[in-house]
């Protein structure tokens, strides 16, 4: 399988391609190489080849979020029939649509963990503050009272680490990934006969 670098081309609306559409080009020997060979399901429901998926999704992440995407599949050995082209279109769109759904489900699960962790963290922090104040009021503890109280406070704030990580850092990359899969599920898919490889083409 040959994977070509993405190219940005300006097309008119006359041929059904939005202006400024960014094209991701994939070169294959035959159209079936676009699919995962280990997946026995029908073409319309089959997974894409892992290398093709990684290449397409990787280039989509490099392109601006407002740029419409298109996929051009260059076939080397024989021209694809209209039925095969339509099967590939539906399979590609359905594949990335399912990826978007799975990613959003993962985001919901992460936020649920974050909410649960937040409740636990707040309770642990409140308990540590209360115990720290109690220790500070006990004169029998002596000089170790301050150290013990600070240790409780540190432990309480450590309990807040996980929810803060979820709500400040972890959720937005997953949402961006889901949006990228949404763009890929709506991209234009074309199949054309292969042309000689350009210097930009690299072998996977």
Give an overview in words:
The protein has 204 residues and is of the alpha/beta class. It folds into two domains: 2-103 and 183-203, no CATH class; 105-177. It has four helices and six strands, in the order E-E-E-H-E-H-H-H-E-E. Strands 1, 2, 3, 4, 5 and 6 form a six-stranded mixed beta sheet that branches. It is rod-shaped and about 90 Å long. The N and C termini lie close together (6 Å). The relative contact order is 0.19.
Topology summary:
Layout: E1 2-3, E2 7-8, E3 22-28, H1 50-62, E4 69-75, H2 82-136, H3 144-159, H4 161-185, E5 188-193, E6 202-203
Parallel strand pairs: 3-4, 4-5
Antiparallel strand pairs: 1-3, 1-6, 2-3
Helix pairs in contact: 1-4, 2-3, 2-4
Short synopsis of the structure:
This protein has helices at 50-62, 82-136, 144-159, 161-185, and strands spanning 2-3, 7-8, 22-28, 69-75, 188-193, 202-203. It is an alpha/beta fold and 204 residues long. It folds into 2 domains: 2-103 and 183-203, no CATH class; 105-177.
Tally of structural domains: 2
* Low-pLDDT windows of residues: 4-14, 197-204
Q: What is the total tally of β strands?
A: 6
- What do the pLDDT scores average to? 80
- Fraction of residues in helix: 40-55%
Radius of gyration: 26 Å
Structural class: alpha/beta
